[in-house]
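Milestone 3.1: sequence recovery, worked example.
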């Protein structure tokens, strides 16, 4: 399998480490900043071709698969370009930042012979799978998702695309909190309506997008949701549900019932920041297995589109109920 990683920033390096851990290193990497890409390869102890142009990768190298790890606004165009050439794509979240971009991606996926996968990797965490199995036959009385993180001004200044509606597509909701919202809707059922508010409360001198969100989602199991990157320090993202037995809480690597541990994941090497979780390797293993076995990948474009539509509906809400 001839794999190319496109975008060699922070998350591109996670993909590089994950592929190497699977024993399937890329045959090349691509980044508009060629020197940055070379530095990433040097850090990993790899000597691979570096491309500065994505179209050259698709046309000249003819890869079997590409990993899209570029800024958000590039995702839809790059995914479509690869799928139109029947090249498999594993795209970092978000799959798209607009309804128009999402529609183009889904149309390309439907007409391509290649597979599209999206890195919503927390679905593959052992704690998540334990939580999902534990609640499957139990009535959920209430539910809540929470992301309380800190992102500094320097973080947003580290890339010109960050913190802008046109290029990031939003703030905390479409970037940091997407994974937790995805888990909420995957574990509890797809919402049918949302009422929410977004605000810029802590970083207004640096970003134009929201840094804080409060929302209520209606659906099979209604749930509330709170997210911020305006905290003075980061805390664990959680999904909590109220059961007849008490409060069940999904933490990044464990599950608790009424504060007592029910499940803890074995110690595993984290490929990037702790907040990225440990699911990248498992997701990539399943993605390439799906290609080899000619079966649909679990987190394909149509599946990943759900959380994008929830976020875009939340952005339209402004305190009013929006049917999804």
């Amino acid at each position: 399998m001839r794999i190319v990683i496109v975008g060699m920033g922070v998350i591109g390096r996670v993909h590089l480490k994950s592929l190497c851990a699977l024993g399937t290193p890329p045959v090349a990497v691509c980044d508009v900043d060629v020197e940055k890409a070379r530095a990433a390869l040097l850090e990993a102890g790899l000597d691979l071709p570096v491309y500065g142009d994505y179209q050259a990768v698709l046309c000249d190298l003819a890869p079997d698969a590409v990993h899209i790890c570029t800024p958000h606004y590039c995702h839809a165009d790059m995914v479509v370009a690869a799928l139109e050439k029947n090249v498999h794509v594993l795209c970092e979240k978000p799959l798209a930042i607009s309804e128009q971009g999402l529609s183009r991606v889904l149309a390309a996926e439907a007409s391509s012979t290649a597979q599209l996968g999206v890195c919503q990797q927390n679905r593959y965490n052992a704690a998540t799978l334990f939580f999902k199995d534990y609640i499957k036959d139990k009535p959920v009385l209430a539910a809540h998702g929470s992301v309380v993180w800190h992102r500094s001004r320097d973080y947003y200044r580290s890339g010109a695309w960050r913190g802008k509606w046109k290029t990031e597509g939003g703030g905390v909701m479409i970037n940091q909190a997407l994974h937790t919202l995805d888990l909420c809707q995957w574990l509890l059922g797809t919402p049918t309506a949302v009422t929410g508010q977004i605000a810029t409360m802590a970083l207004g001198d640096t970003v134009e997008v929201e840094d804080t969100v409060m929302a209520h989602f209606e659906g099979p199991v209604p749930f509330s949701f709170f997210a911020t990157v305006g905290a003075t320090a980061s805390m664990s993202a959680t999904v909590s549900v109220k059961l007849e037995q008490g409060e069940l809480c999904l933490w990044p690597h464990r599950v608790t019932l009424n504060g007592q541990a029910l499940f803890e994941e074995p110690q595993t090497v984290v490929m990037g920041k702790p907040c990225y979780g440990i699911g990248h390797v498992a997701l990539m293993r399943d993605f390439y297995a799906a290609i080899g076995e000619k079966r649909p990948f679990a987190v394909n474009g149509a599946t990943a589109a759900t959380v994008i539509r929830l976020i875009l509906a939340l952005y339209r809400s402004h305190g009013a109920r929006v049917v999804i």
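The chain has a mean pLDDT of 96. The two ends are 39 Å apart (CA to CA).
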